[in-house]
Design a protein that fits this description.
Elements lengths: L1 E3 L2 H4 L16 E4 L3 H14 L3 E4 L15 E4 L6 E4 L4 E5 L4 H10 L2 E2 L11 H6 L7 H4 L6 E7 L5 E5 L4 E2 L3 E5 L5 E5 L21 E2 H5 L8 E8 L1 E2 L3 E9 L2 H20 L8 E8 H7 L12 E9 L4 H14 L8 E3 L2 H24 L5 E2 L9 H15 L3 E6 L4 E6 L4 H20 L15 H23 L17
Parallel strand pairs: 2-4, 3-4
Antiparallel strand pairs: 1-2, 5-6, 6-14, 7-15, 8-9, 8-14, 10-13, 11-12, 16-18, 16-19, 17-18, 17-21, 20-22, 21-22
Helix pairs in contact: 11-12
The chain binds flavin-adenine dinucleotide.
Amino acid sequence: MQVKTQLEDIQNYLTDASNMPGGHASRLLIPESAEEITSILRDANEDGEQVTISGARTGTVGGAVPFGGTVISLERLNTININKEARTATVGTGVILADLQKAVEAEELFYPPDPTEWSCQVGGTVATNASGARSFKYGATRDFVERLRVVLVDGDFLDIRRGQFVGDGDTLSVTTEGGRSVEFKLPTYDPPDVRKNVSGLYNSRPFDAIDLFIGSEGTLGVVTEVELRLVEKSDSFFSGIVFFENEVDLLAFVSEAKHHSISNFTSEMSDPFGASLIEYFDANALKFISEKFPETPEKMAGAIFFEQETSAENEDDLLTKWNELLEKHNAAVDASWFTTNDQDREKMRAFRHALPVSVNERVVRNRQRKIGTDMAVPDANFASFLKFYKEILDASGIDYVIFGHMGDCHLHANLLPKDDAEAEKARHIYGRCVAQAIMLGGCVSAEHGIGKLKRKYLHAMMGERYLNEMADVKRAFDPKGILGRGNMFDESYL
Ligand SMILES: Cc1cc2nc3c(=O)[nH]c(=O)nc-3n(C[C@H](O)[C@H](O)[C@H](O)COP(=O)(O)OP(=O)(O)OC[C@H]3O[C@@H](n4cnc5c(N)ncnc54)[C@H](O)[C@@H]3O)c2cc1C
């Protein structure tokens, strides 16, 4: 195990993509095996010393940013074992997602979770229940986790398989490898009626204990190994970035495309016409991204990136159907980009990825922090929420871009303040957007999590009672509150 205490060696581990300031730690430990983590946690727990778990620090809410104590980096737990027949991948949680994707691809299989930033670690994606564009069809990371191995604060392992510890009473127990039972009270809050939600600890009925650890943001244990379900890869794809001169047409196109897609995912009848992802760029986002992609057409009201899975038998028919739908809704077809080859598809992914990256670069250049929303609302309230976003942001006079997962009613409105006065105003607007999302039955975080930066919004969404229920669950696994301190709850809950 590597032990580092010099500031220059640990500096990179003191912040994440949020640029949250003030991170500090007394040491960084880089274990070579899961077993080494057991003694680290046991000692820290005895001393009541806090431990922050570090993935690749691409998180945007300060979850991996330490404020004292020890940082454990999982980067050496990086084995990948793919069982082609069983269609599973068993991986160390320090594996970089892009490496997993490559290894899975080499076996001609497919791992759908697609958070835009592929330099994250698999452990980070499990701890944040990461999702992305393809979650529209395939769901989030949770939907692919079959088994987890977790080190608990007393150094004992919990090896937990989906379906192994399930309950719908008031409490549920899990049994560790050492034979200890950990009992916790099942929360009573109802999940919001949205397609994606990572706002605090998970709840559902029946409750599968494996789901508690997925999205728990490093607050319950160190996840060291994960078994992931893989799926069959589509033979081929038809992808498009389609531009619209008129926002009303764009929204009508999305509504109809979404309708086809969702009935395709849910119906037993196999009409394959439907997108696996539907991503949005508003007019400002297009202007912004044209700095890196000058071929972006000018004066468009917005664009949609969609992908259709195809096979040799149905490709022609599906291309015709998409063309009809685009023409029906007045897409600027001649200015739009389409492809059926992997190379151009990668370029489209790069176009999508360039947007959040450029936003981060711009805020750093402005010496500000990103103020970006991550709320999702129920389908029925999406149009009114988008209207609210545009009205409040236009009125603010602050530069902004809106983009993201329109298929899942989950957009990122990113404000780009130029100075401290604009930043303060932007934070106020952010708070109003949160309030509006909650009022519409939505959630405060659909994919980035709560971390340290969004605690007060979790409080606004859940209220005292339910936040205390989450804290009760946390205490059952981590009575001294040493793990991921400051994530989700402030210290008054522990
Ligand atoms: C440009 C950009 C685009 C992004 N787009 C998306 C997107 O589309 N969808 C999305 O979901 N996210 C997105 N993100 C956020 C981020 O990439 C994900 O949250 C990612 O899953 C974090 O992984 P990580 O390894 O970097 O984790 P970190 O940032 O290092 O950690 C995140 C949290 O997980 C905990 N953690 C990490 N590893 C473990 C472990 N092994 N056991 C227990 N806890 C652990 C940490 O303590 C922390 O609380 C984006 C980020 C950037 C910078």
